Amino acid sequence: xxxxxxxxxxxxxxxxxxxxxxxxxxxxxxxxxxxNSNSKLRFPKNFAPDKREIFLSGEAYFEVKENKxxxxxxxxxxxxxxxxxxxxxxxxxxxxxxxxxxxxEGSVALQVGKKNILLKPLQxxxxxxxxxxxxxxxxxxxxxxxxxxxxxxxxxxxxxMWKFEKHYGYKIVIENHKLNNYRCSGKFRLSDxxxxxxxxxxxxxxxxxxxxxxxxxxxxx
Length: 221
Fold this sequence. Notes:
Layout: E1 12-17, E2 23-26, E3 32-35, E4 39-44, E5 52-63, E6 72-75, E7 80-83, E8 87-92, E9 99-105, E10 108-112, E11 115-119, E12 123-128, E13 131-136, E14 149-156, H1 157-168, E15 171-174, E16 183-189, H2 193-202, E17 209-211, E18 217-220
Parallel strand pairs: 5-6, 15-18
Antiparallel strand pairs: 1-4, 2-3, 3-5, 4-5, 5-8, 6-7, 7-10, 8-9, 9-12, 10-11, 12-13, 14-16, 17-18
């Protein structure tokens, strides 16, 4: 089937999830995407004849429909993932200084700058200020957001509050700096809400919190 549409002429859909929201979608080629909170997915109404290219800002889990003649390409501001058919998770929030690609099944080719890496199943590639590093996935709980859970292992209080921001939709301001050295592991059900999560933490930590009048900002005191 011929396609004379140029890239500039190709029509795109854009899907945006707010803080605290998620969305599941099946793309025109049959690929399943589960888009996490505060994320944006841009994809064409019809894929090009030689490739399936989409654009992601945020986090998403993919189950790619296999097509050896048309590679599936995920573009982000920090790197590019090229696959044929596989299951993987990408975290690439444009405002965060990190980029994580986690391969669950199959294989992906990862391009970050001039570096090219081929990931094997249960490997993850992490890009941060120290560079690009490939490690084995030791804990699948990191991807439990797809099952309605916030899971954290040896996380700092700041890291945990960032997860709360992403999943519950609030801006969280930490004024109590005594919490900086606190680290914790555990999990919360998203359905229990942020009040429940904060009250559980208060049982072992000395802090209080209050919401602003718009009910969009929580201050930890």
